[in-house]
Amino acid sequence: MPQSSGMKVLLVSNQNGDGKSIGNPILYRMMCTMREDERIEQVDFMPFKAGKTFSSLRQIAKAGRSYDLIHVHFGGIYALLVWFATYRVRVPKFITFHGTDIHAKAIKSARSLREKVKIRLNQWASFVCIMLFDRHGYVAEEMRQYVPRWIRQKTDGQAFIQPLGVDYQLFTSQNQQEAQRKLGVSGGKKVLFSDVSNTSVKRRDLAEKIVGNMGEDYQLLLMSGVSPDDVPTYVNACDLLLLTSDEEGSPNIIRECLALNKRVYSVDVGDARRQLQGLTNSLIISRDPNEAAQMILQNLEKDYTDDTRTTRRDILDFRQLNKGVISLYDKALKSKSKAA
Predict the structure, then answer these.
(1) How does pLDDT run across 10-48, given as a tens digit for each residue?
(2) Which of 61, 103, 126, 289 is deepest in the core (most CB within 10 A)?
(3) Nearest Cα residue to 214 out of 235, 241, 191
(4) Pairing between strand 69-73 and 40-47?
C-alpha cells in the first residue's frame, strides 16, 4: 500500500497539555480541523513546560525531526529558545503571535517591576523571533503596528495573518434552558463573561458593575477554567457576551458567540471593533459602567437580525480558515524542496 504524501506538522505552545494532550482550546480545535484536510498526513501538539525548560527543549528538538514543519504558537522567550533548540532541525519553522506577546499591554496592569521586565523581555524576544523564523503570523492585522517599523520592513515578505476560528461541528445550537440546566443555572438573562485564567486583565470587576446596572433580570455567567468541549454549552446558555478586558489580541470568544448567533458587547480592545463591524445586534461599548449598561439595554430592544452563523461563516469557520494556513505550509515545503 503506497504511503501518504501528506504533510506532517508539529504544533508547539507554552501552554501545558491536559487530558487531551493540549492546553489551549484554540490550538486543540485547530489541530482537530487540520487533521481533516487531505494535504495533512499528521498533526500533533507538544507543550513547552516552563518548569522543565531543558527537558522540554530536548523533547521538542527530538520530536521535530519526525515532522515536515514546526509551527510555534505564542511568542516570547520560550519561542526564542525553541528556535535555538531546533536550529539543526532543517524544516520550515512558523510562529504565530496571539496578543500580549507582541503588544505587551499587560505591562499596564503588572504588579511588580519584575513582572514588567518579564513582559518587556518577552515582547523583544518576539521581535527577534520575527527575524529568525521562516514565516511569522499574527491573529489580527492590528497587532503588526506594535512591531518596530524597521523590523516590519525587513521581514514584510515573511508575514501572514492567521485569523482564529470556530469549530462549527462542535459549536452547534442547543436549547438554552437545557444548556443552563447542564450548568446548574436557571432563571434570569445570562451575561457570559469569559476569563479562562482568572486574570485581572479581563476586568471582571468592570463586568460586574455593568451587569449590576442592567437590572435584576440580568446575571453574570462566569466561564473560567472549563474544558474546551464545555464552551459551547456556556455560549448556548447565555443571552449575550460581555467583554471588558484591558488588553486582548483577537478574542476568540467573540467568534464563538457569533458562530452561535449570540449578541456581543465589547469595549474597544484588540480587534473587537473589526470583528463587530457592520453588525446590528452587537456593539462596541463604553468603559463607563453606567453608560455601557444603557448602551446594551438600548441595543437589546432591537430584534435579532444578524444571523452571524450563516452570514460570517467564511471568516468564522476553522475549516475555512485553516485551508489558508495549510496552503502556506505547502508553499514553504515546496520552496524548501526546490532549494534542496
Answers:
(1) 999 987 655 444 556 778 878 888 998 999 999 999 989
(2) 126
(3) 191
(4) unpaired
The helix/strand/coil state of 234 is: helix
Q: How far is CA 179 from CA 173, 229, 233, 239, 250, in A?
A: 10, 13, 5, 12, 26
User: Which of 101, 91, 78 has its CA nearest to residue 12?
Assistant: 78
CA atoms within 13 A on the CB side of 259: 24
Rounded to 5°, the CA angle 38-309-201 comes to 95
Q: Is 193 left (phi over 0), alpha (psi -120 to 50) or beta?
A: beta
Residue 242: HSE in the Cβ half-sphere, 13 Å Cα cutoff: 33
pLDDT tens for each residue of 79-111: 999 999 999 999 999 999 988 899 887 787 778
Cα–chain center distance at 265? 18
Are 309 and 255 in contact, with CB atoms under 8 Å apart? Answer: no
Residue with cell 516552563: 50
Helix axes 289-300, 204-212, angle to 10 degrees: 60
Cα 106 to Cα 124: distance, rounded to the nearest angstrom: 14
Alpha-carbon distance 310 to 183, whole Å? 27
